Amino acid sequence: MAYDYDVIVIGGGAAGLTASGMAANFGAKTLMLERHRLGGDCTWTGCVPSKAILKAAKVAHHVREANAYGLTDHPVEVDFARVMQRVHHIRDEVYEDADRPEIYTNMGVDVMEAEASFVDDHTLALKTSEGTKRLSSRFIVIAAGASAFVPPIEGIQDTPHLTNESLFEIDTLPKRFAIVGGGPIGTEMSQAFNRLGSEVYVLERGAQIMGNDDTELAGMLQSRLAKEGVNYVLNASVQQLSKSVGGVTLAYKSGEETKKLEVDQVLLATGRRPNVAGLNLEAAGVTYTTRGIPVNEKCRTNRRHIYAIGDIAGRYQFTHMSEHMAKVAVTNMLLKVPMKIDMKHVPWVTYTDPELGHVGATQKELKEKGINYEVYAFPYTKVDRAVTESETTGMIKVYAKKFNGKILGVDVLGTSAGELISEYGLAMRNGLTLRHMADTIHAYPTYGLGARRAADQWYVRKQSAGLVKFLKFIFRYRGPVNEYVPGTIV
How would you class 48 by CB atoms within 10 Å of its CB: exposed for 0-12, middle for 13-18, buried for 19 or more? Predict the structure, then answer.
């Protein structure tokens, strides 16, 4: 009772907002600290603005490609400033609806704009506009997030460049736009800006974009984006950035040759690094590395009363993972109910058109662990909803046990892939198999029906010619015996 608070949460992003709200609802005297504005990366520089600009780009694309739907194609005049005004309006709308301080003060959370650093393991020094003060807490939750990583490229400090933290503040569409990095952010923005009218170049260190996703499906997505007009420079290592008359010149090495590329703007989509600097974690005795603050399966640091959640914890840097970790931390911290991080069913989705999603184990992980599995694939060309909407680029790939249909992992490329991935995540989390999914009625015609059709393939493979012949003999059936070769899709 000697502490000022029961819980102090450092950070007001997705993780901090969730943890603060839960702590207050459980009756804990709670303080949430945020050095800038509530909402964090997701609301201001990540999920929300990127999806808003992707939607505008998709509309522009469909207008240009209207002929595919039996309509008349039309050229699109993009007013980029207005596009960005809409993006800003949507950010503000999300903030007002879910993130503004009054929402949390009404829950009983004290909200303070301050920059926090540890004095000891229970005390924080808070730097505010009115000066510095100290407050103590029984429990402390570190949810300080992560920031865009700017690699040590020669000349980068003297050359204008964008990251996701500045991209959504520009109001002029780059005519020539270079994106360094072919991961989720780089891939989403390459399609968005290409569709809005930029000449886009993606420089990727690897031989293919989306290196953490299924190789086949990532390749299909890359081919789709290249067909739309995105220019790829693969196996490229950027050596230098410099100012030029038109904007920026990139010098990059591809193979043994060094080349140059002149563009108006360059976006560095080169990952994110945890915000551990400035917290003075040493004073609290909290262990950390450049990759973040290590936590156990309960989100606890090496100090029993200090928890770390969200991007700063060095796990998957997703908003949904931040919220999950907040739930795990607060449940263990305040309710003393054992709850563990679910690392087996973490979904991720790249919101391109088509979307690319994953949940569970990857094929690479299954092979490395020597786990036997079967691949049950189903193409979007056989999903009737996709056919009616001319959205047939895509594939569902399920990795499951041959004997009982236990689902081990799933990759989906296609329209509504994110929604399908959530269905598979629910099934895996609750022990449902491909048999359960195949036996569940799905509405027709939906993209979700594709998940059931993929599950049907398990039944097809379980059927043997010998069994059919036995049934024919017993019941005196007269039809032919179908024998399906591997790869047959029914």
Answer: buried
